[in-house]
Batch of 2 targets.
Target 1
Amino acid sequence: MDMLMFQLDKAIHTPLYEQLYAAIKSSIIERKIQTNDKLPSKRKLADFLNISQTTVELAYGQLLAEGYVLSKPRVGYFVEDIDTLAYVDMEEPSQNISPEAVQIAIDFNPGQIDTQSFPFTTWRKYMKDSIDEEKAELLLVGNAQGEYELRQEIANYLYQSRGVQCSPEQIVIGSGTEQLLPMIVQLLENEHTYAIENPGYATTHYIFKQQHQSTVSISVDDDGMDIKELNQSNATIAYVTPSHQFPTGAILSASRRVQLLNWASKNSHHYIIEDDYDSEFRYTGKPIAALQGMDQEGKVIYMSTFSKSLMPSLRIAYFVLPPKLLEIYNEMYNYYTCTVPRIDQHTLARFMQDGHFSKHLNRMRKIYRRKLEKIVTQFKLYGDKIIISGEQAGMHLMIKANHPLNALELSQLALTNSIRIAPIDNYLVTNHSDYNQHLLLGFGGIPESKISSSIDALMHAFGFKKEY
Amino acid sequence: MDMLMFQLDKAIHTPLYEQLYAAIKSSIIERKIQTNDKLPSKRKLADFLNISQTTVELAYGQLLAEGYVLSKPRVGYFVEDIDTLAYVDMEEPSQNISPEAVQIAIDFNPGQIDTQSFPFTTWRKYMKDSIDEEKAELLLVGNAQGEYELRQEIANYLYQSRGVQCSPEQIVIGSGTEQLLPMIVQLLENEHTYAIENPGYATTHYIFKQQHQSTVSISVDDDGMDIKELNQSNATIAYVTPSHQFPTGAILSASRRVQLLNWASKNSHHYIIEDDYDSEFRYTGKPIAALQGMDQEGKVIYMSTFSKSLMPSLRIAYFVLPPKLLEIYNEMYNYYTCTVPRIDQHTLARFMQDGHFSKHLNRMRKIYRRKLEKIVTQFKLYGDKIIISGEQAGMHLMIKANHPLNALELSQLALTNSIRIAPIDNYLVTNHSDYNQHLLLGFGGIPESKISSSIDALMHAFGFKKEY
């Protein structure tokens, strides 16, 4: 056959190669593609579907491994007679493929990073060096809190760049927020009410709920969480993102920081969870140290991750415990094994030790800043149609559209133009009319060279015209 | 100085290099080692302390990084003037070092594997191939249940070697029992009473307790869990290790398997958690398929791990959900991100796909079988002093010592001879006089060449003499 047409969806979680594999497989099972048909060459199919050749290679490899196709070297891939297969799964293996799925051309999802600039060669070298007969001990179970050498590097980094005061003993390494936050909830023992930011990070709300904790949502404005509202609430634990509020991008003001710490001092059961998820990237204004560094009374549990600074799929995050909670941790988790592969921890520790992490951060900060500047410049061409906020740090900002349609309608309008952008509504715990016109624009995953055209495409979708 | 004498403890979790680092550091801080003193060469210190040169290198590297020593190329390491350091942590960084700590020469701890036989070169190659610009998508968040290609490999493996019937869609990949078992508890929703084996795997009991679940302990005999006792209990979930009971090594008999499945059928809330942690290695008798394969009613949650088959520090485990629980999973964990690094998952999937996993298993099975045969042969030389059981599978067995001292006293006696071996008492949930004389002997970590001498050393510690 000449070509295969499939609708692949870059927006859903299922990897593209998996979608492609599933689509071809069901075409074979349903006899839409005949026995002995030759599949298109990898290059041609990749070009046709506008995906990478690796993606096609992965999909073909899977089909080959399962016997749906056979490979004739230097000729190509041919469809097998499926009657000869021992077992054919007649159902589609993935429910995620729908013919209606929209192809996303521009993705303003805030979870993306700039994958093009990752130091593959260096990382590969350090990973290679960690897998070695001489380091056979790394195959065995390591320290429950994570490798000491990695905690030492993290402690140094946190002190120097975030003003966090801690020893490696206070650090617990784990596989991400989903895994670490339930541990923190367990450590806090008593029945608590968690103050969560509104709008805020939905995953954490799910986790508190699943851990059977009650929550109360507290408003966020340009200065971050409203501490007056917190004081009036019955909350005992405050979950905050002070360096770059998610999703509004607000920075918790200095006076509110003091008020928040005072709130925590009021009661021995009060604690603050400071989620410093993307603080590595700050572009303007004086650097503001972490709340943890201001805390004199052991009230702040600091947490952060390498998801933004290195890669989301590495699954290395950590929290820093104040001394009192560290004691509880040591009693409660004495049976525990650290969830992060030891070889990965060793690799990261060495990468940091040799200065590659700070080098990478400095490089990425420049790249993300340039992207941000391009976004700001581009939006300015549209006059007062778009108001930007939260652009001092991180890899996302908030935009307010001066448009007769609301943000939800605008995001749907964008989608029909193959653009994904979420309304702030998606992150609201309780309704809040202040955010009717606001959208969350993540720019980490968009290549620098495509920033301006992506903004233009979004403005075009909204029906806005350049004024300058 | 000529040499440094430290007591390092191979038995505790803290890595040796960390212990060494901490010991030298506190000696420097306490001025036991003077400014400008030259540290012993790496090779000499390694020889002297009977540890690897890498361990010394790691410790020296750490001291260097923190400024406690300076390195003169081709001359050696010299102690710095600590008054010049900006910050000296006067406390010992690790509480785990005690002068009384016993050096463990022979370790029968069941958590060890044979690290010498790990295919470092192949694993390194696959890992290297996974870190590639062409596969930049692997940096981003992947499928929440784990990479589809890895789940496919696991499904194939489980079907072929364990008779487990499942599709990749039913598999959820995670970072180990400590991370996956709480997810299962959440999935089962209702308030349950968990039947746990007595003796059994202590970590799981902690987890059930921490998840606020009630437990009831059920006796184990030569045929595994006593199902009569289970039927008489108020348990609604049965946690079992049918292939090779931990720690007794008993195999759940065929009739009890049927009884256990019947127990599960009795009530719609009843479920079985089948922990198949070391089933890869079976040496004698007909292979017994997993319980899951016999289950017609979707009552078995199957779980297993790569800790024994590859390495404990890889932190890749998984569970297989029956369809009904899969539906609940899909609703409950829609916010979730898989905790296992995607590059590691990709590496393992390719390693399995190309047949290296089965090759490795076959090779290790032979090695572990030879070790086991040597153990049995060696114990026979001591007549009826030792009775062995649980030696049909896995990497540990149970021994019963015909000795005036009980197992606890024997394990203490062993420790004074630098041998670590745990009494079965350590694994008892409630007291059980049947196990007064029983010890758990793990042999995974002991090199084949040292098996016979290690058994002799243990027998010598117990005061037993060869009879043949």
Target 2
Amino acid sequence: MSTERDHDRAFVRSFFTTPTAVEGEADSAKMLRRAAQLRGMEAPDVWVPDNEDATAPSMRDEGVENIVEVVTAHGEDVPAEIHPRVVWHRDSPATRYRGFQHMLEIADPEDGAGEQIDGFVIPEVGGIDDWKKADEFLTIVETEHGMEEGSLAMSVIVESGAAELAMGDLREEMGRPENNLERLFLLVDGEVDYTKDMRAMTPTGGLPPWAELRHNTSRAASAAGLIAIDGPYDDIRDVEGYHDRMEDNHAKGMLGIWALTPGQVVEANTAPLPPEEGYWLLDADGREVELRPEDGVATYDGDRIELEATDDGYRLGVGGDDEHLDDEDLSDAILDLVEYVPSLDDVVDSMAEFEAAKEAGKGAIAMTQAVTLRIDGIEVDIEADRMWDEATYQAASTPIALFKDVYENRPDQHEALEERYGASVVQRATAVGN
Amino acid sequence: MSTERDHDRAFVRSFFTTPTAVEGEADSAKMLRRAAQLRGMEAPDVWVPDNEDATAPSMRDEGVENIVEVVTAHGEDVPAEIHPRVVWHRDSPATRYRGFQHMLEIADPEDGAGEQIDGFVIPEVGGIDDWKKADEFLTIVETEHGMEEGSLAMSVIVESGAAELAMGDLREEMGRPENNLERLFLLVDGEVDYTKDMRAMTPTGGLPPWAELRHNTSRAASAAGLIAIDGPYDDIRDVEGYHDRMEDNHAKGMLGIWALTPGQVVEANTAPLPPEEGYWLLDADGREVELRPEDGVATYDGDRIELEATDDGYRLGVGGDDEHLDDEDLSDAILDLVEYVPSLDDVVDSMAEFEAAKEAGKGAIAMTQAVTLRIDGIEVDIEADRMWDEATYQAASTPIALFKDVYENRPDQHEALEERYGASVVQRATAVGN
Amino acid sequence: MSTERDHDRAFVRSFFTTPTAVEGEADSAKMLRRAAQLRGMEAPDVWVPDNEDATAPSMRDEGVENIVEVVTAHGEDVPAEIHPRVVWHRDSPATRYRGFQHMLEIADPEDGAGEQIDGFVIPEVGGIDDWKKADEFLTIVETEHGMEEGSLAMSVIVESGAAELAMGDLREEMGRPENNLERLFLLVDGEVDYTKDMRAMTPTGGLPPWAELRHNTSRAASAAGLIAIDGPYDDIRDVEGYHDRMEDNHAKGMLGIWALTPGQVVEANTAPLPPEEGYWLLDADGREVELRPEDGVATYDGDRIELEATDDGYRLGVGGDDEHLDDEDLSDAILDLVEYVPSLDDVVDSMAEFEAAKEAGKGAIAMTQAVTLRIDGIEVDIEADRMWDEATYQAASTPIALFKDVYENRPDQHEALEERYGASVVQRATAVGN
């Protein structure tokens, strides 16, 4: 038995929460109704009608009614999976019982919403035995409503040290006959409450980066066949910051992230996909600069790197250190400062080329990217070689596998993908790899 | 059952060790005697007469007598909790037995010190079963002396990979009927011996940062209701380095630190409390600069950021990259470079304001901080907004909870707190929050 | 019982893999044959005839024959321990059975290779029960061939989240009567496949740093008495990058690393040993610069630090910030920017001096390093003091213990060591410490 993921989606890029009932509006379900009608890149992979923190405590019973009403009306057409978040707390039996009652009501097939509900999100879990209590309630919900045991997915918000530790036990606990923990789907970090639980503090009140938590979440997902999702990024105007966070997450194997607005959903859906055009990264004395070639020439116009011709070669100045170089050395020195970021087209090309080489009995081939770099008016031609072997091929297959999962499960995004990459690249990307 | 902490102190800022017997002095207990008489900010939250590494092996029996004598004489008036460190080693039964004998003697109520001893610190623990051996000895000490089981606290020094792993099991082990591990109090990292146990080395012989160890210690404290303390900072003259380390620790939820001198105790007691005046942090091309406004104007006078007026606006230069900006864009660009560090007064204000807003049915309010920034003689007005919602409020409550814990348990520090913040701010801080 | 390491080597610096059978060569065992004849610094501590990833799947049965042949012919003279890597996969019983058959054949004493085989390397392990399957096969190999149970070492490649988690259980699992896991020897990270298993991705396709994995591997080695080894560094031309990685590993207690070429073996064997000459590290505005004194004067000739004499003292400029200093302050300011990296000679001196001081009843002594620093033509004399106490002594003993382990187990490297350090320093290094 391998740890194959048992759910429809093998990848989840975006986890989008919506308040279930807003006070003081003529229609308290307005936001739910609007979110249910998102399509394409604005529609998330997982949609979370949020009957916990996003909804005022006094509105949560009404929130349950709203979920039932809106999901009954629109659920069938929603391109996302639907996983409402209910109330729960490791330290409060009353909260847990209320969460149970809400799940029982939301999943009731007689009300019409039941069939559209893919699972539930349980916040504020503690040790593994607390996870089992939620699992048991889900089992009861299933049997009460005549559903198959384990058919409702369960996702958790990891927002306590206890829950972080519990993730280390999932692989062995998921096989035990007394539970249905195989229903587990997403492990979602909740850094705001986690910060409080850990009693951490920063001078400005900003959130700590919690690198170890994110690693441990990704590792648990890997070991137990689940999917790791990062928590909310509060500053919704800071698109660059959101992207930096996602890049950091991707390097940890955490490919999904919370989204608070349709704008963030678009970013979250797009960021894990390879870019439409390849580009170069230049290390300008510790600052990473993106260079996009025009007509094969990529220009750096900052002051952090200086280049000038001298009588017998070149002077290359980086952060106050000068090197005197001849032609060839200059090319090598510049090559050391750059890296190439391949486009989807590049990745597909390289994979196909490697597949062909492998079939012909070769174990490794060199892929070359050439560019002319212009610094202070001087042009330097460089060629970056990268050896592709089985390992490189396998590593490259993660973004392609994600691309295919998106293509298969999100027909409403085909148009956007084709607009971005062109139809032929999309076609080839769905065919390459295994 | 929640993981409420069972001890008097919910927070410990400072863990101060003192040699128990110094050779060649007329009074070998001189340092102990002096430490017992520290008061106010110089007195730690936890005082540790150190009968292990700080005391020569040949002096440790005398050290035990000194502890008994000094604690009998002064213990009642010591504002700190008193937790002597005894000898222990996971690999040496003889050392463990000696530590047991020392505890038996120190805790003996007939000698007079017993009642003043709050617990013991056990160094060099290994796997969880080794922790249980120490716990069992403490249980025997308690029953031999007619004390209640579990009344003596137990703190450990985490200085081996085995102990680091054991911390992951505390939450479940602490409930078992065969032990009294609920007595656990502090988890203290000991990076020097940990470095040796891990066989780590650095070119200069300096200690590695051990970020993961500190995270795991803080997480275990969170999961098991304990308190995490960082190890000693050897370079006692490097106050700035000690502060940097504490700031890093606080962002991990590790709010306490070892102190080797009364001077370090003052720093350790003060650093986790919010500052008396708010200030701004400026990101000057990767270097963080503190700007303290005078008459509402904060001046940056370094060369890492350049600002000059041009014909049609401004040129802003950061690390060799220039931006040309009009008035509004300049203000936005500067705003991106700064963050506000709130004072205790600011935090109390914001919490009170949010409490009032919440009562009035609002879920979020904007808190604004305004300042004029002067760079290269040019003044730029900026306004930083921060949304406060329930989560922000909860996160801000950690420093306030710590403040209240200090205020309640350390009457000897009231004067220093009032001198620092003013009596009215102190009064309001003890009243806000829940 | 302490966690003493049970194997011949307490330290392993280099883990060198060689393809077992190369297609299209007249002699498919050519690379094996050449690797078996490496001596001195080019010979690794652990040599791994690699019948997994380095060898084409179709060549692996022939690879087994080659191992038997080459190890029979040359094994006795190979200075390295010999641990072939066989095929294995947590998700494939067929692969595991094939690995078992290969081990049975390679270890057969009738073929002549058996006695020279020190153990096997098992890749792609999963949870701890998967490790036990490999252990059981090794036990069967041993009893089938009349060897003592547990006499074959077992090393694993950690290249899945499941295996990373399993490392946390080794300490307690290794004592159980149903297994012979005490045979465990090396924990080797395999970052390429780990990246795939974690589904991580980076823009350029480069490997993530995986700092937490390396920490957890080192910690498991510490807790269970094993040895931690980092995975392969692909860019074999990038010697500087390989060194940076090793320095980072050493600070985590991971003292060994994979080597893909004899050149990398030399680097891996040398890097954990102290340098032959001490030198200074200068923090030049965030960039670390190595300064090697000539005739007691170390010169910095970059532009990141500026120093000039003024009417009443000096102007010191670091990264755009100026300080105006008198003579003494200048010396202190420069001292804050530098650190000394001791040579093997320095380390031995300091240890011997501390041992003598300790015998004379002193607990701590100051070791001084003096140098003249020349910046922009101005010379500044500095003296760096470092307090040596028992803890410093113990920390310094790790490189010395490693040195002695090398000296004892690798007579073929004596000549290279004496060439590097001089015979007298080598002699004293083998005598100091305990």
